[in-house]
Amino acid sequence: MAKTALSDSVSGELSKQELLSIYRLMLLIRRFEEPLNRKFREAKIGGYLHLYIGQEAIAAGIIPLLRLPGDYVLSSYRDHGHALACGSDPRSLMAELMGRATGCAGGKGGSMHLIDPDHGFLGGDGIVGGPVPVATGVGYAIKYRGTDNVCVCFVGDGAMNQGGVHEALNMAGLYKLPVLYVVENNQYAMGTPISCSTGQTDLVLKARAHGVQGERIDGMDVLGVRQTAERVIAQMRRTGEPYFIEAICYRFSGHGVADNPTQQRFYRSEAEIEEWKRRDPVLTFRTKLENWGVLSPEEAEAMDAEVRRQIEEAIQFAESSPEPPIDTLFENVFA
Predict the structure, then answer these.
(1) What are the two backbone dihedrals, phi and then psi, of residue 311, each rounded to the nearest 5 degrees?
(2) pTM
(3) Mean pLDDT to the nearest integer, 323-327
(4) CATH of domain 47-281
(5) What's the angle, vertex CA 168, arms to CA 178 and CA 182, rounded to 5?
(6) In degrees rounded to 5, what are phi and psi of residue 124?
(7) Burial class for 172, CB neighbours closer than 10 Å (0-12, 13-18, 19+)
(8) Quick one: which of 118, 191, 134, 117 has its CA closest to 157?
(9) What is the pLDDT of residues 239-264, one digit of tens each?
């Protein structure tokens, strides 16, 4: 493939450093996720585990545009990538996954409840659709304070059938709250395809029914995601009104760690998975950067090696950290 001039694409609006920063974040998320399944099998990660592999372009395309702290981010249980994009320390996140006292929630939250308020990340949520009402409340607080901040809420497509989600969207549309609702539509709510779980598969229409404007985008194209998010966030800061993005994407791993390749065959084919993997957001973006002359193969390999070292250090930090003391069991717990 011939090299493409930067001015011929959306990348022309970004500096070389910005492009490399986006790629490194996507790579960081991918390399963070890859060893987790193995660590779970080694019984070093407790609770449950949902991987973000395949969806990196969404977090990397949106979150770096925010003013953190100041703006806010909430996520579903597939939250590792969002926390990393907010700037959370991989060591603290890995320690939390392994239930260690040095984790971001003191080792008590685990994979589905990462949190880092200092970086604007108000946490993951193990309840399907759970962060949507909370994000709506955050949006009301922003409006009450009179600032131009925004809240971004990430959920999956399965959340769009939850009653609380529609109640919250109705409130956002009614009160005009500065919340960006991002549905990462990986097309399967656990193992159920969206065509079998909802009568209206155009999720943007569901948001519009509540007075929230929105659009559908390609969630596998990081620069396309970023271009849309930049426009939308600027509009929200100006108007203070909500917006809805349906990002079409695909998870390369199963729904969770118990969803192994054998079980996946009951609801999606190997051919389908391989077809989507040809659109791998990390690999396709690397190819673009190399074709544009922004990143050489040697530089790409060196960056990959550096990120892998960072993740290995995070694993070593977590494994060498102590478990939470028994006498802290009831600290920071609401009953």
Answers:
(1) -70, -40
(2) 0.94
(3) 92
(4) 3.40.50.970
(5) 60
(6) -85, 170
(7) buried
(8) 191
(9) 999 999 999 999 998 898 888 777 77
